[in-house]
């Protein structure tokens, strides 16, 4: 899950949800995106399912321009790899915190 932060001007919040299944996809794909209430629902769903949220306004804007259910293009691989690394670290921390 990636989203941008609200600015002091209260810009509309945006969120993009990514999914990557190594056995099914060659690259992560966008499974949901939206702004305003839709973005808030995406973030709430992430929170309710313990999905880490990575905040990056630039990446969110780039991903918002892409179609849902499509893999990300190669020029975004490096930026999305940072997201996947963040998610991995958060998952490892959560497993350690809960002794899993």
Automatic annotation (TrEMBL):
One of its GO terms (cellular component) is plasma membrane. Keywords: Cell projection, Cilium, Flagellum. GO terms for biological process: protein secretion. SUPFAM superfamilies: EscU C-terminal domain-like. InterPro entries: T3SS_substrate_exporter, T3SS_substrate_exporter_C. It holds the Pfam family Bac_export_2. This is Flagellar biosynthesis protein.
């Amino acid at each position: 899950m990636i989203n941008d932060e609200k600015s002091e001007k209260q810009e509309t919040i945006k969120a993009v949800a990514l999914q990557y299944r190594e056995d099914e996809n060659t690259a992560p794909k966008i499974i949901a995106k939206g702004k305003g209430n839709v973005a808030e629902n995406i973030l709430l769903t992430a929170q309710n399912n313990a999905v880490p949220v990575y905040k990056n306004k630039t990446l969110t804007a780039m991903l918002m321009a892409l179609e849902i259910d499509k893999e990300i293009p190669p020029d975004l691989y490096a930026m999305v790899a940072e997201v996947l690394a963040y998610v991995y670290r958060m998952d490892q921390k959560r497993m350690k915190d809960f002794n899993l």
